[in-house]
Write a structure and sequence with these properties.
Order of helices and strands: HEEHEEEEHHHHEEEHHEEEEEEHH
Low-confidence stretches: 1-25
Helix content: 25-40%
Radius of gyration: 21 Å
Strand content: 15-25%
Distance between the termini: 73 Å
Largest sheet: 9 strands, antiparallel
Number of domains: 1
CATH architecture: 3-Layer(aba) Sandwich
Length: 398
């Protein structure tokens, strides 16, 4: 009898732990939106499928958080259009720059532990001058690199380009005085990866698995490709619906090598909203504006055109996350974009509401504005700055 009770208790504890790490079983009959109104699961389905069909989006994953819990999660369309294989919540997708948000979360753990000082020049952490590393030899005649700090690299204020290969000479340059303004930089995030790996003496893949993926139950997420994902992965598709394929990265890049699933990344957003793995003050620091943004467009960079249009929402950047402010409180967001892949997430802490959209289509961003406005009544995302031009509007060159 006692043995049966013990077995039952062990089973109950394991079940409780699994429930805590997994999204709530979807889907609620109605989802509460930011303005207090609700939308039914049927209406969500109709909206998503209508927009996907109109904009020719191959596949899409959608998750919505209510009260800090995953209240709706569903895959639509195809992960493999040629074989008509359905995309579902456990389909592995290339995460693109969603990688940066997960990396920032891990970096803030190191900051909290005193392993990394946000304002200490990164050169103090490296055993040799930065230009002596082959990848950074281009900076030998640019002493501005000595000003770089982790705060600058996480807030995209270092002055480094997004990627050097976009420059005419394909070389790395510092475009402005570090810390003086915002300009999105994958190069900056990967530079911080070098610093973190040097300090911890561990490869990024191991750090992310130990500190983020495993603790949060993200079992189908990795910074490099694994054969374990071959049973259910998505291909990317271009604007014409032609196959782009999928990426099998062998080397971890903090700026964009992560692969994940709709279910796993929803877990991550839930954990960030809960402040799991970070002290409240550390989470607040991560989501505190470091620089206000006045550029008219996020891309291409550096942007010389400015605007006051986003001033009412105080568009800014924190440490690894974009920020804006609304009557519903502060919102933090992150995008993911590459050929064949377009993603967006935005979370409203005060309302405990968030939305996650992941697509394996270069047409995905064309339906983001209407999805955000219809599904959760988010009319604040700076879609012009993001370049999320609706599919039925003419695209003007930036």
């Amino acid at each position: 009898m006692k043995r049966n009770i013990l077995v039952f208790l062990v089973f109950f504890i394991l079940l409780s732990l699994a429930a805590d790490s997994a999204p709530r079983s979807p889907n609620l009959s109605s989802i509460q939106r930011l303005d207090g109104s609700t939308i039914s699961a049927t209406e969500i389905d109709k909206t998503v499928t209508r927009l996907m069909d109109a904009a020719q989006v191959t596949g899409l994953g959608l998750a919505i958080l209510n009260d800090g819990q995953v209240a709706y999660i569903k895959g639509y369309g195809y992960r493999n259009a040629g074989e008509q294989l359905a995309l579902n919540e456990d389909t592995v997708m290339y995460a693109a720059s969603f990688s940066k948000a997960a990396f920032a979360y891990m970096v803030m753990q190191l900051v909290e532990e005193g392993v990394l000082n946000l304002d200490k020049p990164i050169s103090k952490y490296l055993p040799k001058p930065l230009p002596e590393y082959p990848r950074y030899a281009d900076l030998a005649n640019e002493p501005g690199y000595k000003l770089f700090t982790a705060r600058m690299l996480l807030s995209h204020t270092s002055g480094l380009p997004n990627w050097r290969w976009f420059n005419d000479d394909k070389k790395l340059h510092i475009m402005f005085i570090p810390g003086s303004k915002y300009s999105y930089s994958g190069e900056g995030i990967d530079l911080l990866q070098l610093v973190i790996e040097t300090i911890t003496k561990k490869p990024l893949q191991d750090l992310m698995r130990e500190r983020v993926f495993k603790p949060l139950g993200m079992t189908r997420t990795s910074m490099v490709w694994s054969k374990d994902f071959e049973d259910n992965f998505a291909n990317g598709y271009d604007e014409k619906g032609l196959l782009v394929g999928h990426q099998e990265r062998e080397y971890a890049s903090a700026a964009g090598s992560m692969v994940t699933t709709l279910s796993d990344y929803a877990r991550f957003l839930k954990a960030v909203m809960e402040g799991k793995g970070l002290k409240p003050e550390t989470k607040e620091l991560m989501l505190t504006p470091q620089i206000q943004i006045f550029s008219a467009h996020q891309f291409p960079i550096p942007s010389s055109e400015t605007t006051e249009e986003d001033k009412p929402i105080r568009l800014s950047y924190g440490l690894g996350w974009g920020l804006f402010f609304t009557p519903n409180g502060k919102a933090y967001f992150k995008e993911g974009h590459d050929d064949g892949w377009e993603h967006y997430s935005v979370s409203f802490d005060d309302k405990k509401t968030a939305i996650l959209i992941m697509t394996n289509s270069s047409n995905g961003e064309g339906i983001f504005k209407e999805l955000l406005e219809t599904l959760i009544k988010n009319t604040y995302t700076p879609w012009k700055w993001e370049g999320y031009i609706p599919y039925d509007q003419p695209h003007q060159a930036q």
